[in-house]
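Margin note: ligand = uridine-5'-diphosphate.
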Amino acid sequence: MVYERAEILGCRLDVIDMAGALQVVQDSIQSREPSQIITLNAEMIYRAQHERQLIDLYSAARLVTPDGIGAVWALRRAGWQISRRVTGIGLTLKILDMAREKNWRVFFLGGEPGIAEQAARKLAESDKPLMVVGVHHGYFSDDESPRIIEQVRAARPDVLLVGLGAPRQDIWIAAHLEVLGVPVCMGVGGTLDVLAGKAKRAPRLWRRLGLEWLFRLINEPGRIKRQMALPKFAWLVLTKVRGTGRQPRPS
Ligand code: UDP
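Resulting structure:
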C-alpha cells in the first residue's frame, strides 16, 4: 500500500483514507510483521510540541492516520487533498468487520475491569461472531506488563486493540511491539467502552459536521481540560502550517 507521509507541526501524519488504512492492516496481517497503528488527533499533535519523544514514536509507527477534524484541517491547510478522518473508533469497527469475515483473532486490552469482557460478549452475540481470543483491563502498573505481554503472546492474536488512553497506549505498544509479535497493534482510546455499551458514540449527523469532540465534551465535561489544547493547536496551525509547513499537492 503506497501513501504519502505528511508532517504537521513536526509530527508525521499519513495522507490516507479508510480504505487505505484497511489495506495496511491486511498487508500487516499477511506479512506477520509486528506493526503499530496510531490514530493521531489534534490534541496529541499539540502535546508532542512539548513531549518531543512522541514525535519519534509517531515516526516509527507503521501507520499514523488523521483522527479528527483538526488533523484533517491541518493536512488540508498544508496543501494535501484529504477527504475524511480515519478515527480510532471508525477504523476499529471496520477492522472488526473484516476480522469476522477473515476469522482474525482479536485481543482487547484496556478499560476498567469488566469492560473488555463485556465488549467481547456483545461482539460474540452477532450472526457472525468475532473471535476474541483474550481480554485484559487497562488498570495495571508497569511491573505487571510482562505478565500481560505473556497473556497476549499465548493467545496469538492477529489484532491487538489497546485502550489505555493516549499517549500511554501508544507508548506501551511501541515499547513492547517486537516482543508482543502481533501483526496489528492499535491504540483505540475509549473505543472499548463504546463496544461494551458503556459509552455512546456521537450520532452520525454530529460526526458528519465534525462535532464529535463537542458531543464527547457534553457527555464527559471533565474532558474540558484536555480540549483546551484544541484552540492552541488551531493557533499553531494558523500561524505555522501555511507557508513554512506547506507541502506540494501529491500528483
Ligand atoms: N484507561 C485504562 N487505563 C488507564 C486509564 C484509562 O484502561 O490507566 C481507559 C479508560 O477506561 C478508557 C480509555 O482508557 O476506556 C481512555 O479513553 P479516553 O476517552 O481518554 O481516550 P480517547 O478516546 O480520548 O483517546
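The chain has one domain: 2-250.
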